Amino acid sequence: MDEKRITGKMNIVLCAISILVLVILLFPLFWTLITSLKTEKEIFQIPPTWYPHVLNTRSYAAQIETGDFNMFKSFFNSFMISSGAMLIAVVLAVPASYAIARYRFVGRKAMLLGFLVTQMLPVSVLLTPMFIMFRNMKMYNTWGAAILADATIGIPFSVLILKNYFASIPKALEEAAYIDGCTRMSAFLRILIPVAKPGVVVCAIFSFLYAWGDLAYGMTFILDQEKRPITAGIFNFMGQYGTKWSYLTAFAIVAIIPVTLIFIFMQKYIISGMTNGAVKG
Amino acid sequence: MKRIKSFFRYDNIGLLYILPAFAYMMFFVGYPIISNIVLSTQNVTVRNLVNGQKQFIGLDNYIAIFKDGVFIKAMGNTLTFTVACLVFQFLIGFVLALLFSKNFTFSKTVRGITMIPWMMPMTVTALMFKFMFSTDVGVINFILRTAGIIKENIEWLTTPDTAMIAVVVANIWIGIPFNTILISTGLTTIPQELYESAAVDGANAWQRLTRITLPLLRPTIESVLVLGFIYTFKVYDLVYVMTEGGPVNSTHLLSTYSYKLSFDMFQYSKGSSVANVLFLILLLVGMLYLKITMQGEED
Q: Cβ–Cβ of B185/A275 closer than 8 Å?
């Protein structure tokens, strides 16, 4: 609906409504942020305070010191695991999606269906078999196990998204490259991938975010708290210090830093990823 | 050699491009799916997981779980959870999409910002809602008390009935952006002229909604609901972090119960059976979805 611009009073009313919607929707985030900056005493105060009367940055400072409240290490683990999963997903998905978009090879439909079905897979189906597999591969309790497992979420998503991008590139562009002396491989690497770059960025972002949000794999395949991702760290901490809300909320805020950064700098990619990924398949 | 070369000459060269991704998925997903089926027909517990004799016991695990009260309860919970989430997140998402389809100053910016909940790690979302729903420090109790809706603090997460409400609310929060953005995209495909000519013919806003928007949006609505069903039916982290299935199994979903059986009680084969039932249900719904979307689409 490319509706014409609304002006005047109606515009002000709609803006006010949308701000109200935003305030309600983002309240949990606001509340978490505020709480993370309060002292334990102020958190338990009734009625609650709507902003920290005494600013307490202890919960953040403790995360880079040694001891139980250190989340810095977990953050780093999460970062490495998510980057690894992202790399695998993008490297494998780019050629695969190109193949689906361009060539009508034997078994194409079946493979496409396979990628679609994996998106419906509940994580619990894979946990025990993967657990046994990683033990046999001597990868249990390493980042590698989580990386390999997390990539299985990113790959099918990326293949399905990217095939639409590659399919939308005119064939003439590729043919022109051949005429200019490109081989199939160099045309793919030097012409097609750069043109499909927005799609590749979408895939990278989502593969990273899926891995960043994962709890089940990180918690099941990695035993040592030292090597676990931040989600597992938070879960663990909740079990041990369930009511230390100043620390817990600060962990939550730190865990969403990458999400926030990605959102601020790459918003348009996210919306494109959500719509393409879901509707098309 | 020559035959191999000619096989890959034209379209089949695509196989070489797709092979790495396909092999990866076969190894890390395909094989585990099969081995999970095998596992569910054995008697694997912590004693014989890695090495040791695994015995084939046929469908005994499936028979056992269908006689297990907690499994039946988890099945019911999963359905309640999914339906409750779908209804509310769809309705709210729909209203928001209609709001943002109007072209006012903040429409695009605000719609963009509302996507944030969807991107957050579910563990973090669970933590935030656990905090807000906690009995004494919880801001939700405070707001309800101040508004005069309740007199005494509700023990949201430790009472069976209210615990389900709490996890549903948290999941709706995650689901709203997904619904909003997909319905928004659907709305952009409806030609504006239809509304203009309807207005000329004297149709009021309600008539325009029910006679133009809803019928034309049907394909979008169908996919939003089916996809929402699939995503919600297999939710795991959110509930596991908020309640671990408790109190008294009142929020156990098939996913959390399967995890609990396998990794808390070490009854791996039983846990696998529950996971397979969950997967089968999703597969059936998924096939329905594919049938809807693949219709008339060549690829």
A: yes
Q: Tell me, which fold does domain A71-231+256-279 have in CATH? A: MetI-like fold (1.10.3720)
- Alpha-carbon gap: A143 to the closest alpha carbon of chain B (Å): 16
Taking CB atoms and an 8 Å cutoff, what residues of chain B touch A22? Answer: 110, 113-114
For chain A, the first-to-last Cα distance in angstroms comes to 23
SS3 B117: helix
Q: Say what the alpha-carbon torsion angle A66, A71, A74, A80 is, to the nearest 10 degrees.
A: -100
A115 is written with which tokens?
């990628």
Render pLDDT for B170-195 as a digit per residue (tens, 0 to 9). Answer: 999 999 999 998 899 889 888 888 88
The pair phi, psi for residue B51, each rounded to 5°, is: -135, 160
Residue A206 · residue A273 · CB < 8 Å: yes
CA distance B152 to B150: 6
- A238 sits in which H/E element: helix A230-240
Partners of A103 on chain B (C-beta within 8 Å) are 10-14, 17
Q: How far is CA A77 from CA A192, A263, B168, in A?
A: 34, 21, 31
Smallest Cα–Cα separation from A104: which of B15, B23, B291? Answer: B15
Tokens 């209804």 belong to B87
Q: From CA B196, how far away is CA B213, in angstroms rounded?
A: 13
Per-residue DSSP letter, A223: -
CB pairs under 8 A between A and B: 308
Contacts of A167 in chain B (CB under 8 A): 299
Q: Where are the domains of chain A?
A: 71-231+256-279
Q: Where are the alpha helices (DSSP H) in B26-68?
A: 31-40, 60-66
Give ipTM to 2 decimals.
Answer: 0.90
* pTM for this entry: 0.91
What are the boundaries of each domain within chain B?
59-294
Question: Which one of B24, B255, B293 has the shortest CB-CB distance to A122?
Answer: B255
pLDDT digits (tens, 9 = 90+) for A267-281: 878 777 776 665 443
Q: How far is B166 from chain A (nearest CA, A)?
A: 13
Nearest to B166 by CA among B273, B247, B269: B247
A31: chain B residues, CB-CB within 8 Å: 128, 131-132, 139
For B7-21, B64-78, B122-136, which range has the lowest pLDDT when averaged over its residues?
B7-21
List residues bridging with B42 in a β-sheet: B56
Q: Give me the architecture of the B59-294 domain, per CATH.
A: Orthogonal Bundle (1.10)
Q: Which one of B13, B124, B152 makes the best mutation probe of the A interface by having the most chain A beta carbons within 10 Å?
A: B124
